[in-house]
User: Which sequence fits this backbone?
């Protein structure tokens, strides 16, 4: 499971896009409208530009440390203790998001397709998928991702093309939503919308060269930004402001509008397969990284014994919120607001600390060399 | 104790065995992760030049069996540092083993009587009625020497035995034979002058003689010599070269393999008339001692791949192997996956095509199916006819075949999912019609579907063994009348008949027999999942199926290449075939030695036309 | 004691079996509903109930009859479809709300009600005038009700309307509703009023909702036809043109007793008025939903005859709104084009001089009609159904300002200007009309 696994550039890009863009199928378009009314799409563009800048800074600092991921950096900085702390923080972070997303996707399926089944029944399918995928390892997951992501993206674009004659540009007015101040200043924490970019650090040890990591980062960010903008834009072009905040599943509502004649009328259930597959991919990827980080942080030898306990923990945690509204609140208020800190500020600080340490070390070495020569 | 052990094994974590999975070694120049096409083309050309230069200096492992120094030079370029020592040792030991095998056993004795008694005892001659021992005398340099020949009646061509062995030894030996060296030994004398045979071996042990006679050669013992001669006089009855039974194409050669190893290798040699095609001979099975041949093209196939396959073949330790089907199951990576990892085919032109691409083939005596490895998923969807027909038709047929696979796999599962969970998807007219017909049927939809699927499989299995006059009619009867009768009896609804029929037809459209089996099995899993959870179940099935396929490796090549990992050239090669004059590169994932198979412009007349056009202007 | 050699094989198989049994052990297949265990609702009618808030009528498809009807109709007959048996079942009941009503139905109907194929929802006029927001909300929240259902308002009671819906040309009543509601594309007498659009219009700050008007025909035989309820008098015409009617009054009798024509106009969620057929086509023109229809225009030179035109919309109509002294001034520009279908008077309008005369006459005819229509919406109905609000909204940059502006209250003071441009494209097959030759004519000459 170590250095033998090597990924191509596009496989890593697709992983990045998956982790950032799966939220389209859940709550993101509605959230964006809630924050910035009819200027939701502008908010996404603005946030992507901010994220681009932050990513540029992070990658610049990362140059000296190619091939190391966050846990390796923490080890460099603070030895074993740092490794364990960072490992625990990151795996808890991913554990949190995975159980919230598992709950939301199960509720999703329940509302759309299986209204009478108990929630544990729908969750079991996702958990079984997670366990099987983790058992077979990262390579298989990333490969399947590289096949499935283009299909998901194409089907999404097909939905949009199908409903494009209902688009009405005047629905975007007033163009600045709640006002310029609100849009540009109050919404800076919304950079957490793009917090999936941290997954570039998961992929770093498998990607080897710095140049590739840079390309993966920028291309992945660009594609995710485009997808998120298109999602929020298309949502706003059909549902105007107050109504748009009401829908639980924005993209599902969009696909409901899709109808051509009497035959292609109620086809949104076909798209359900696509969304379910993307849910599987996302959940298995995130839970795998949880397991992987626990293994790396504690220097364990095998990761396979961890799979079933982690799966059971995620499953049980996902049943804790008493209803759907609590789960959504958890996701919005805690995760989407504060994940920016873990995704952006935390690596930034870590990298700063590491590069400072490195400079100090090289200064020390130079001094020693001087002393030796003298 | 044992129940405790079972539970322990089920519930607790077992440390995995430390097996190093096989990976096809790349040369160090090949490890470029940036798939920039222009750069790589230039690089590849340079690499090819280097490789060609090196190849002319190198020799393969089998030739360099005991030569350590040359091995160091030869293998250094092709393997990475880690594997160098390992490979060297194992290759050397492997080559030495093959030599040692020949020298085991009891040495032949000088005394003819002893040899005769030994052979009679081993073969239980009076009881074993088709072993023939013919004793005769030879005249060598005016001396009369006794000799006998042993062969198996029915396995040898008696005419050749008479004409080429008995006649010259018995009659012509008394003729005056001119020779340069009058002090030749008897053995050399007989071999050089008295046995006009194309293939003649001199062996020293009884075991070799017995092995030879078992295949159909004729063993000749001469008094006073402690060696025996083995003459190849094989002449057993076999099927002639006919059309292949399983892979029928319309446009292309219509020859198929037979059960004789030599005939099969000859069919392939007929197509690849190249001295670089190596046909290595390996014997598998302790009792049956079936001869197998390993075929590859020396300057194209990757050495580590060939070594790995040879290794696997030689390490099979069984009593007998009868067919390549069994051989396939012994050497494949994953027994429990429902897709095959080795391509099996009955057509020599398909084998030749794969050999030229850089793969390795195995032929076995007694089986008309050849094995080709490594295999990956898109290869199973290609039919051999694809290169022989024109570009538009080939791609059209590929799309139809893909559609057939998808229909066969998913259609019943999707039907159950829609009918039981997602009724709103069906257009209202159709749905009311389905509901009206379902009214009369007493079973729930899934039971109906399972009844029909199982009966279809039964009919399929029975149709293979039905005696031929009734065969075709049973197909028609089964389809029309039984289906119609079932609908009229209100056992099934008519739309299900259509669904099951389309599914069945889809499975016949899959070119490869083994893959069709795999898909048939997976279909039932999808039916179950669709009935349990609708589209969520189908999505689960697709995901798990995808993960399984992505994790399978066939001889070091991931099964889903070239879909992923992406290779640098030929973007959609796995679905669409590019025009034949554009197929310039061999598949990258096989890490072949000679990458380019066509130059940039392979149609010379196009260039001439261009030049002419410029002149005119 | 025997020592079993447990192979890896067995372990793998047993784990697979255990996992495979899991979903079944959870007593799975909850949502597995057989297709013939459900009853599919085609249309829902909501009336004001006497003792309960609602009286619900459900029109349920009966597949056996549909199939039997289909089989019987194969002999080439096109009318009278199913040999006497109706392809739908009707059931009416009183209940406090939609969902509890659907439960009650099962005391009578044997199967589980499934509304995912429902095509139309019909409100009675009485209920519509009181406000229907609570019912619309329930429909939008449920997963089964689809946004593509047609919203119709029945003049009279919805129960009567649904009782009288007996499709003559279709076996499947769902197709009847679908085709009927899409007929606006070639008649111009109704509009696309799906549930989703209705809901969005209801909640939007910038425009108001409409619903299709439907009714049972008043007349029972062709002798009874009269034009008493036509609106032509309000329009200052001497005779009714074909669009001057509302559903229920259309001078038509036939085997099918129901008809749709006109729109019901809503202010918020309450119905405030109606539009007749002609006004509906103007509404369609302004909101860019108009495809084509046959229009009858009085002849400019000969007052007794008509000119028939096939009018299409050439370009999207443009709206603009200006604010002068706080009063909104709205202007609309409509571009139409048409083909001449018939010139009853025989006057040669195809020639270039007369053609421009004809075009100007038609333009003034439309301008008058559209102006009248817009004034009605502003002064009488006070409901901005043509979505002028969308144009006004683009002038704002901040949502809060827009919300405080309250456009819909200001709508009633709007002054309108209309500009119609009409061009004749083709005269059909005849390029020139000549007089018939008869002895009378030659006598006068």
Assistant:
């Amino acid at each position: 499971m170590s250095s033998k696994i090597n990924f191509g550039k596009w496989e890593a890009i697709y992983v990045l896009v998956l982790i950032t863009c799966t939220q389209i199928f859940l709550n993101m378009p509605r959230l964006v409208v809630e924050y910035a009314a009819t200027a939701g799409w502008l908010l996404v563009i603005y946030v992507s530009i901010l994220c681009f800048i932050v990513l540029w800074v992070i990658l610049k600092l990362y140059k000296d440390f190619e091939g190391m991921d966050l846990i390796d950096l923490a080890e460099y900085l603070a030895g074993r203790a740092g490794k364990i702390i960072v490992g625990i923080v990151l795996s808890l972070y991913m554990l949190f998001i995975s159980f919230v997303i598992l709950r939301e996707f199960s509720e999703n399926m329940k509302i759309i397709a299986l209204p009478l089944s108990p929630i544990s029944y729908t969750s079991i399918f996702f958990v079984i998928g997670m366990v099987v995928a983790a058992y077979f390892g990262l390579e298989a997951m990333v490969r399947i991702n590289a096949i499935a992501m283009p299909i998901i993206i194409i089907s999404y674009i097909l939905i949009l093309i199908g409903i494009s004659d209902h688009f009405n540009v005047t629905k975007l007015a007033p163009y600045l939503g709640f006002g310029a101040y609100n849009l540009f200043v109050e919404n800076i924490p919304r950079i957490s919308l793009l917090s999936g970019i941290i997954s570039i650090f998961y992929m770093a040890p498998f990607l080897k060269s710095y140049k590739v990591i840079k390309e993966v980062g920028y291309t992945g960010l660009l594609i995710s930004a485009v997808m998120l903008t298109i999602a929020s834009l298309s949502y706003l072009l059909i549902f105007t402001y107050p109504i748009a905040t009401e829908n639980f599943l924005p993209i599902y509502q969009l696909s409901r509008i899709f109808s051509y004649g009497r035959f292609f009328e109620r086809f949104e259930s076909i798209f359900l397969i696509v969304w379910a597959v993307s849910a599987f991919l996302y959940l298995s990827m995130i839970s795998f990284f949880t397991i992987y980080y626990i293994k790396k942080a504690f220097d364990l030898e095998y990761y396979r014994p961890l799979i079933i306990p982690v799966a059971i923990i995620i499953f049980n945690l996902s049943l804790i919120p008493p209803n759907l509204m609590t789960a959504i609140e958890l996701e919005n208020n805690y995760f989407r607001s504060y994940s920016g800190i873990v995704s952006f500020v935390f690596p930034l600080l870590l990298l700063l600390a590491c590069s400072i340490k490195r400079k100090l070390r090289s200064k020390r070495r130079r001094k020693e060399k001087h002393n030796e020569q003298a | 104790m044992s129940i405790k052990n079972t539970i322990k094994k089920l519930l607790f974590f077992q440390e995995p065995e430390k097996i190093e999975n096989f990976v096809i070694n790349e040369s160090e120049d090949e490890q470029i992760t940036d798939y920039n096409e222009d750069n790589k083309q230039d690089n590849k050309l340079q690499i090819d030049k280097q490789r060609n230069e090196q190849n002319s200096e190198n020799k393969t492992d089998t030739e360099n069996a005991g030569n350590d120094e040359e091995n160091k030079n030869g293998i250094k370029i092709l393997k990475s540092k880690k594997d160098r020592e390992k490979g060297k040792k194992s290759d050397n030991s492997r080559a030495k083993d093959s030599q040692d095998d020949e020298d085991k056993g009891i040495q032949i004795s000088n005394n003819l009587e002893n040899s005769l008694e030994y052979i009679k005892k081993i073969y239980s001659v009076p009881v074993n009625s088709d072993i023939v021992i013919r004793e005769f005398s030879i005249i060598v340099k005016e001396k009369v020497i006794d000799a006998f020949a042993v062969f198996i009646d029915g396995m040898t061509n008696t005419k050749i035995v008479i004409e080429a062995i008995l006649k010259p030894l018995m009659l012509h030996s008394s003729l005056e034979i001119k020779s340069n060296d009058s002090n030749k030994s008897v053995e050399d004398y007989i071999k050089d002058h008295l046995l006009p045979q194309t293939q003649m071996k001199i062996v020293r042990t009884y075991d070799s003689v017995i092995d030879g006679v078992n295949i159909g050669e004729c063993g000749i013992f001469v008094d006073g010599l402690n060696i025996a001669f083995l003459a190849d006089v094989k002449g057993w009855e076999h099927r002639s070269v006919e059309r292949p039974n399983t892979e029928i194409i319309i446009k292309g050669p219509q020859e198929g393999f037979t059960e004789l190893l030599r005939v099969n290798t000859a069919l392939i040699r007929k197509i690849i008339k190249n001295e670089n095609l190596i046909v290595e001979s390996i014997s598998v099975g302790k009792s049956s001692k079936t001869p197998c041949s390993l075929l590859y093209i020396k300057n194209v196939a990757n050495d580590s791949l060939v070594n790995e396959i040879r290794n696997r073949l030689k390490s099979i330790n069984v009593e007998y192997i009868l067919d390549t089907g069994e051989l396939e199951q012994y050497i494949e990576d994953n027994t429990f996956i429902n897709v095959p990892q080795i391509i099996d085919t009955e057509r020599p032109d398909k084998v030749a095509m794969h050999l030229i691409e850089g793969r390795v083939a195995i032929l076995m005596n007694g089986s008309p199916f050849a094995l080709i490895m490594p295999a990956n998923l898109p290869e199973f969807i290609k039919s051999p006819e694809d290169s022989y027909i024109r570009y538009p038709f080939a791609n059209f047929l590929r799309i139809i075949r893909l559609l057939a696979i998808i229909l066969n796999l998913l259609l019943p599962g999707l039907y159950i999912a829609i009918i039981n969970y997602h009724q709103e998807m069906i257009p209202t007219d159709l749905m009311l019609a389905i509901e009206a017909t379902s009214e009369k049927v007493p079973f729930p939809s899934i039971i109906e579907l399972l009844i029909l699927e199982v009966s279809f499989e039964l009919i399929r299995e029975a149709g293979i063994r039905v005696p031929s006059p009734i065969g075709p009619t049973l197909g028609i009867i089964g389809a029309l009348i039984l289906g119609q009768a079932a609908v009229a009896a209100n056992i099934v609804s008519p739309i299900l008949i259509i669904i099951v029929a389309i599914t069945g037809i889809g499975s016949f459209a899959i070119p490869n027999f083994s893959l069709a089996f795999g898909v048939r099995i997976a279909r039932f899993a999808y039916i179950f999942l669709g009935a349990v959870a609708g589209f969520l179940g189908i999505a689960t099935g697709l995901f798990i199926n995808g993960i399984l396929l992505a994790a399978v490796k066939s001889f070091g090549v991931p099964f889903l290449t070239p879909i992923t990992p992406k290779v640098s050239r030929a973007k959609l090669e796995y679905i669409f075939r590019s025009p034949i004059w554009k197929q310039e590169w061999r598949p990258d994932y096989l890490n072949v030695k000679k990458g380019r198979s066509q130059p940039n412009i392979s149609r010379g007349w196009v260039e001439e036309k261009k030049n002419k056009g410029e002149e005119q202007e | 004691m025997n020592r079993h050699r447990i192979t890896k094989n067995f372990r793998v198989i047993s784990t697979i079996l255990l996992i495979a049994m899991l979903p079944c052990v959870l007593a799975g297949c909850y949502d597995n509903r057989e297709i013939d265990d459900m009853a599919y609702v085609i249309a829902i009618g909501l009336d004001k109930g006497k003792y309960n808030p609602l009286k619900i009528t459900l029109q349920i498809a009966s597949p056996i009859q549909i199939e039997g009807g289909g089989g019987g109709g194969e002999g080439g007959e096109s009318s009278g479809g199913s040999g006497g048996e109706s392809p739908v079942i009707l059931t009416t009941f009183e209940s406090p709300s939609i969902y509890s009503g659907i439960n009650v139905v099962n005391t009578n109907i044997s199967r589980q009600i499934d509304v995912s194929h429902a095509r139309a929802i019909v409100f009675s006029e009485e209920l519509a005038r009181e406000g229907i927001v609570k019912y619309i909300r329930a429909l939008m929240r449920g997963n089964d009700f689809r946004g593509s259902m047609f919203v119709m308002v029945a003049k009279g009671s919805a129960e009567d309307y649904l009782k009288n819906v007996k499709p003559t040309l279709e076996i499947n009543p769902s197709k009847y509703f679908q085709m009927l509601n899409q007929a606006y594309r070639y008649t111009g007498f109704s509009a696309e009023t799906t549930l989703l659009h209705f809901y969005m219009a209801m909640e939007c700050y910038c425009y108001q909702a409409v619903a299709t008007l439907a009714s049972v025909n008043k007349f029972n035989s062709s002798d009874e036809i009269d034009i008493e309820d036509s609106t032509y008098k309000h329009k200052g015409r001497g005779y009714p043109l074909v669009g001057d009617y509302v559903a229920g009054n259309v001078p038509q009798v036939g085997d099918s007793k129901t008809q749709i024509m006109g729109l019901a106009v809503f202010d918020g969620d309450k119905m405030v008025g109606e539009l007749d057929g002609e006004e509906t086509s103007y509404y369609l023109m302004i909101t860019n939903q108009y495809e084509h229809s046959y229009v009858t225009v009085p002849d400019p030179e000969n007052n007794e005859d008509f000119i028939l035109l096939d009018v299409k919309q050439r370009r999207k109509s443009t709206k603009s709104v200006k604010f002068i002294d706080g009063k909104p001034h709205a202007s609309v520009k409509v571009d139409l084009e048409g083909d001449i279908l018939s010139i009853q008077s025989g006057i040669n309008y195809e020639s270039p001089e007369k053609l421009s005369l004809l075009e100007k006459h038609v333009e003034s005819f439309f301008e008058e009609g559209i102006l009248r229509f817009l004034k009605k919406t502003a002064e009488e109905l006070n409901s901005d159904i043509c979505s002028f609000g969308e144009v006004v909204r683009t002038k704002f940059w901040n949502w809060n300002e827009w919300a405080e502006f309250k456009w819909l209250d200001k709508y009633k003071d709007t002054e309108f200007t209309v500009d119609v441009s009409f061009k004749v494209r083709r005269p059909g097959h005849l390029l020139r009309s000549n007089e018939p030759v008869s002895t009378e004519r030659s006598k006068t000459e």
Observations:
- The CA atoms of residues 293 and 367 of chain A lie 37 Å apart.
- The mean pLDDT of chain A is 85.
- Chain A has one domain: 9-373.
- DSSP finds 14 helices and no strands in chain A.
